[in-house]
Design brief:
The complex is a heterodimer of chains A (384) and B (299).
Chain A lengths: L8 H7 L5 H14 L6 H14 L4 H12 L3 H16 L15 H8 L12 H17 L7 H11 L8 E15 L1 H10 L9 E8 L2 E6 L5 H17 L4 E5 L3 E3 L1 H5 L3 H11 L9 H17 L4 E5 L8 H14 L2 E6 L12 H6 L5 E4 L3 H12 L2
Parallel strand pairs in A: 3-4, 3-6, 6-7, 7-8
Antiparallel strand pairs in A: 1-2, 4-5
Helix pairs in contact in A: 3-4, 6-10, 6-12, 10-12, 13-14
Chain B lengths: L11 H9 L7 H13 L3 E5 L5 H12 L3 E5 L6 H4 L1 E3 L1 H14 L7 H8 L5 E3 L1 H8 L3 E5 L6 H13 L1 E4 L3 E4 L5 E6 L7 H6 L1 E5 L4 H11 L5 H17 L8 H13 L7 H7 L7 H16 L1
Classes of the chains: A alpha/beta (384), B alpha/beta (299).
The structure holds adenosine-5'-triphosphate and magnesium ion.
Adenosine-5'-triphosphate binds next to helix 3, helix 10 and helix 12 of chain B.
Chain lengths: 384, 299
């Protein structure tokens, strides 16, 4: 919290053209919405009531009332602080989304050069379409690490048409079935209906619902050429299958699901870029995986899920650690898929120590270097 | 007369003072959120690292207000009925048999029998139903992130309407909303709708001064020197340790307690290493910390 000791809220209010307090507070809530917080009408109302409870004259009270009613994650809190300071000191708010100064090149390139592809070229619209179509077919097969900026930009738009499906699993809720566990109340009722004559035993079974998909993306140096594409793929998963969870792995483990919830892919990637502290660094796959299992996986996230690891298997820590963690993962998850960008290339042998240690605990070992292989992966996951 | 929670506290400062009497030290933020929760009749959603006092807040609130704490521990696969009610199937069957034994074949009206069987006396109330019936009370819904989204949807409904409908019995509504505390370790994102219903607070690890206060309050028997050394060390481990699971307040307390039990009046590298298990729970973390200890305790 910054600059809490200046004007009271009342004084601020007067400074703000003597608008009625509600309007002024709603203005603040709207500014938060503009900054990307999920502020709905019901939350605005709750905010007003909360402020009335702590009193408008108490600036700290207004601050905490707003924080409690208008934020819902640590990332929200950070943005809330920025907007609060701006609003209460009367300085104009920055309208563009602010990204911390540490720039993360791998994800941003394509976003910045979005228009480069459609610069010069074919004359008629038909030509344009045809050229695009055949160009796209070629592009689908290319190794994404070898693309130039314009091609990357074109590929980025192709990602938007992907619609990954989450696989299904039996649901928690029971539905009547012919077999399965005995449904006590239903059996009792049946007996009643027959006035005591023993009737058929009623069973119920679970219906179906989707399985969670968990994506673990290696963003270390040796994978940096794939980071942009893999995060775009992850973005599509989060958008199309909302129970998906995404982490990046490098020297540490970072939870990026929240960032990828943003609808617009470029903004989502920039947001993800902002939370990941270790782009293109070393890899501690084994440790990162241990952290995932200890903090998230065991407590439920990996249980019964389809867990997909994207990595080339270059590992700094010993392969034993990775092998052990893969074994733990395999015990929890429904299915473990390893996606390796080198798998689909001629002459590839899975000889990296990490891969060797991990393979015994992997259900599917698939390629992941081109758009076409990503489409195949989507199929593998949908049917896992 | 029964009263709801609106008047439980007069101000955020009152919250702080009241909780302090039970040994729970709330900062201004947490006190304000708690105050608002009572005034607005909204649940508090507490997210934060393990061991930052999320569960303890609910416990202290109940104790401080002299009210019952009803606890629902969530887990993967928990279903609505486990939070609400079950029918006591064996007792229903017994009842059915008894009725049959007494009445002859003629006098059995199945409708009436059904009404008798699905009666409140065969209802086993689970935590959420109990909280609705017994409010005012404190309902702790612990580790909601372990449950799945269907269960969240169910909770959202209860926390919005403060009532549940049991087909055979009817609607059971709370006279006053209970004070609800939900906790989450953020192992996954909760639904927006549920978060919107709640007052949100992210609990950080406490700063040096407050953590020291907590240790002194909870463990008055530990010497000041030892308390301060342990807290300083833990604070550094959190920021510099790069640990899988940074120690929470719970670990600080355990560690100080362990050291005190060994008769250590102050911290030296040897005794610290010997009791490290109280503070760090993973082998990898243990190794990392042991390597840091000499350096840290020297400096
Ligand atoms: N502010 C505080 N004042 C007094 N005691 C505290 C405070 N914060 C934490 N503690 C103590 O720390 C211990 C751990 O707290 P608690 O179990 O509530 O953590 P938690 O956040 O629920 O952790 P988890 O996420 O692992 O469930 C308890 O013994 C509690 O009494
Ligand atoms: Mg807890």
């Amino acid at each position: 919290m910054t600059g809490m000791t200046g004007m009271t809220a009342q004084q601020c209010l007067e400074a703000h053209h003597r608008r009625p307090p509600d309007e002024w507070l709603i203005g603040f809530a709207r500014a938060l919405r503009a900054a990307g917080l999920h502020v709905t009408a019901d939350r605005e109302r709750t905010f007003l009531v909360a402020v009335s409870q702590v009193g408008l004259g108490e600036r700290r009270g207004v601050y905490w009332a707003g924080r409690a009613t208008l934020t819902s994650s640590p990332a929200d809190v950070e943005r809330y602080d920025q907007v609060f300071t701006a609003w209460f000191t009367g300085r104009p708010m920055e309208t563009t989304h602010t990204v911390p100064p540490t720039v993360r090149p791998p994800v941003r390139q394509a976003a910045l050069d979005d228009d480069a592809a459609s610069g010069a070229g074919p004359e008629t619209e038909d030509d344009l379409l045809r050229a695009r179509a055949s160009g796209q077919e070629v592009l689908r097969q290319r190794d994404v690490a070898a693309l130039d900026r314009a091609e990357r930009a074109q590929l980025a738009r192709m990602f938007e048409r992907l619609h990954p499906l989450a696989p299904h699993r039996p649901a928690r809720r029971h539905v009547p079935r012919r077999t399965g566990p005995v449904n006590g109340p239903a059996t009792l009722r049946e007996q009643l209906r027959r006035v005591g004559e023993p009737g058929p035993v009623r069973h119920h079974r679970r219906g179906v619902r989707t399985r969670r998909v968990v994506l673990l993306i290696d963003v270390s140096g040796s994978m940096s050429a794939y980071a942009d594409s893999l995060l775009r793929l992850a973005h599509r998963f989060v958008q199309a299958a909302p129970t998906t969870e995404v982490f990046t792995m490098g020297t540490r483990l970072t939870h990026v699901t929240r960032a990828l919830r943003e609808r617009d892919p470029d903004r989502a990637l920039v947001a993800a870029g902002a939370v990941v502290p270790d782009w293109s660094g070393g890899t501690r796959l084994g440790d990162a995986l241990a952290a995932f299992l200890d903090r998230w996986g065991r407590r439920g996230m990996a249980r019964g899920a389809v867990v997909v690891l994207f990595s080339d298997g270059w590992e700094r820590t010993g392969p034993e650690v990775l092998g052990e963690q893969m074994r733990r993962l395999r015990a929890l998850a429904h299915r473990v898929v390893w996606v390796n960008p080198h798998r689909g290339k001629a002459g590839y042998q899975p000889i990296q120590q990490g891969i060797v240690a991990a393979l015994p605990h992997v259900d599917d070992f698939v390629a992941g270097h081109s758009f076409a292989t990503f489409e195949e992966l989507i199929e593998v996951i949908a049917h896992a | 007369m029964l009263r709801g929670m609106e008047q439980a506290f007069t101000s955020p400062d009152d919250v702080t003072a009241t909780l302090a009497r039970t040994g729970y030290l709330a900062d201004e933020a947490l006190a304000t959120v708690t105050f608002l929760a009572t005034r607005l009749g909204r649940p508090i959603l507490l997210e934060g690292e393990p061991g930052t006092g999320k569960t303890a807040l609910a416990e202290s609130l109940a104790e401080a207000l002299g009210q019952k704490l009803i606890r629902l521990q969530c887990y993967e696969g928990i279903e609505a009925t486990q939070a609400l009610y079950d029918w006591d199937f064996p007792r229903q069957i017994l009842h059915l048999r008894a009725v049959e034994a007494v009445a002859g074949d003629e006098h059995r009206d199945p409708k009436q029998l059904e009404a008798e069987l699905f009666d409140e006396r065969f209802l086993l109330a689970r935590p959420v139903l109990r909280a609705l019936r017994e409010a005012p009370c404190v309902l702790l819904i612990d580790e909601i992130d372990r449950a799945d989204d269907e269960f969240e949807a169910f909770l959202l409904e209860v926390l919005s309407t403060w009532q549940v409908t049991i087909p055979e019995v009817g609607t059971i509504a709370a006279e006053h909303p209970p004070l609800v505390v939900l906790t989450s370790n953020r192992t996954r994102e909760l639904h927006d709708a549920l978060k919107r219903r709640c007052l949100y607070h992210w609990i950080d690890h406490p700063g040096l001064a407050r953590e020291l206060d907590i240790v002194r309050t909870r463990l008055p028997e530990v010497s000041d020197t030892l308390a301060e050394q342990v807290v300083r060390l833990v604070q550094r481990l959190r920021t510099e340790g790069d640990l899988i699971k940074p120690p929470g307040v719970a670990e600080t307390l355990d560690w100080a307690r362990a050291l005190d039990a060994l008769g250590a009046g102050s911290l030296d590298p040897e005794v610290a290493a010997a009791t490290l298990g109280a503070a760090v729970k993973y082998r990898e973390d243990g190794e990392r910390v042991r390597a840091m200890l000499d350096r840290m305790l020297a400096g």
